[in-house]
């Protein structure tokens, strides 16, 4: 199991320091992380990885996620190809669909049939890379994207480090099938319980791989699992509160309701959705209180630091290829060091 970290850039800091990014990736490389992911939340997902590529040697670098439908296959093909060059073959293109309101209202881009559109977008990227690698004519014609022009002036040629791997974020079975059939891996959403992963996600991946004639060993499953840990009761309580609130935030999204339904928690999801639309300033804190201990244990590894690695191996050791810590709270410095060493030992 590979263990990944992240390039956290603080929201509202007023600056995006290349020095801080460089220091972060160097530290994580020294600690033994196998990869780092850059998220597209309050900042661009790709730009920090340019700095990270320059200040690291072997750690893998990826986007988790870059919003696919805010872009098109051509600019994604260029971005991924350039970062593969800059990192000397260490880049992973992690894509996600986002949800309709964000695509239409935040990015002013079209939204329709997300799973078929995503399948076509990935196939179009691969067709563009094919044209660059072989020098053949670019002739991709689909229902959502058409790419038929590539002149020598705009053709970067073959990438000496090969093509980047494409990983697709998914929750539902339809998008999970797309990931298995056309991507190199899947970014499992943090809002995924151990049971949902074992009973729904992995069987769906295996079926999709079989349809595509692919082997499980050629496909990476990456999972950012919630972890609640702390040195004492006070730290554990604060960590649990942060995770409960994040679970509640995701649980308010109807598109993720299938995870709750599997456990019989559909009514909680409906109430979370209702609260998320209210005008109450304290609604997000109130939503977190709906996540009881049973739900917290289903979504998160809850253990003191010296038991976290064993709990992760027990739950996910036979299921995932890459693991990262989803800890939406201020963990004590050094919390993850021993965990990483044990996971990789």
Your description of this structure?
This protein is an alpha/beta fold. The chain has a single domain (2-234, 302-344), classed as TIM Barrel, CATH 3.20.20.30. It contains 14 helices and 12 strands. The protein has helices at 18-31, 47-54, 73-86, 100-106, 114-134, 173-182, 194-212, 233-251, 257-262, 266-276, 283-288, 293-299, 305-316, 337-344, and strands at residues 2-6, 35-38, 60-63, 66-67, 91-96, 140-141, 146-147, 165-170, 185-188, 220-228, 300-302, 322-326. The strands form 2 sheets. It has an 8-stranded parallel beta barrel with strand order 1-2-3-5-8-9-10-12, surrounded by 6 helices. It has a two-stranded antiparallel ribbon with strand order 6-7. Helix 7 (194-212) links the parallel strand 9 (185-188) and strand 10. The longest helix has 21 residues, at 114-134. It starts with a strand and ends with a helix.
């Amino acid at each position: 199991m590979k263990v990944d970290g992240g390039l956290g850039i603080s929201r509202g800091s007023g600056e995006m320091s290349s020095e801080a990014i460089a220091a972060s990736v160097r530290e994580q490389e020294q600690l033994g992380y196998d990869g780092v992911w850059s998220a597209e939340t309050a900042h661009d997902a790709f730009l920090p990885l340019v700095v990270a590529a320059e200040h690291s040697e072997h750690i893998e670098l990826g986007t988790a996620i870059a919003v696919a439908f805010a872009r098109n296959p051509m600019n994604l093909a260029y971005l991924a190809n350039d970062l593969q060059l800059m990192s000397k073959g260490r880049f992973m293109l992690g894509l996600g669909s986002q949800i309709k309101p964000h695509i239409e209202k935040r990015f002013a881009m079209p939204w329709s049939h997300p799973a078929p559109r995503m399948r076509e977008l990935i196939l179009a990227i691969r067709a563009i890379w094919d044209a660059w690698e072989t020098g053949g004519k670019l002739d991709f014609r689909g229902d959502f994207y058409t790419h038929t022009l590539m002149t020598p002036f705009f053709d970067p040629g073959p990438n000496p480090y090969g093509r980047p791997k494409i990983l697709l974020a998914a929750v539902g079975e339809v998008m999970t099938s797309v990931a298995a059939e056309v991507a190199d891996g899947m970014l499992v959403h943090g809002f995924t319980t151990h049971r949902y992963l074992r009973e729904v996600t992995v069987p769906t991946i295996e079926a999709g791989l079989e349809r595509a004639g692919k082997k499980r060993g050629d496909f990476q499953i990456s999972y950012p699992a919630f972890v609640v840990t702390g040195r004492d009761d006070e730290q554990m309580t604060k960590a649990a509160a942060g995770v409960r609130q994040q679970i509640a935030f995701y649980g308010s999204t109807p598109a993720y309701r299938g995870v709750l339904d599997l456990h019989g928690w559909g009514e909680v999801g409906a109430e979370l959705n209702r609260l998320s639309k209210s005008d109450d300033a304290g609604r997000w804190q109130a939503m977190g209180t709906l996540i009881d201990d049973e739900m917290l244990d289903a979504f998160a590894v809850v253990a003191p630091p010296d038991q976290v690695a064993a709990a992760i191996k027990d739950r996910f050791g036979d299921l995932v290829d890459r693991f990262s810590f989803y800890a939406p709270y201020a963990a004590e410095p050094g919390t993850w060091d021993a965990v990483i060493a044990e996971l990789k030992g």
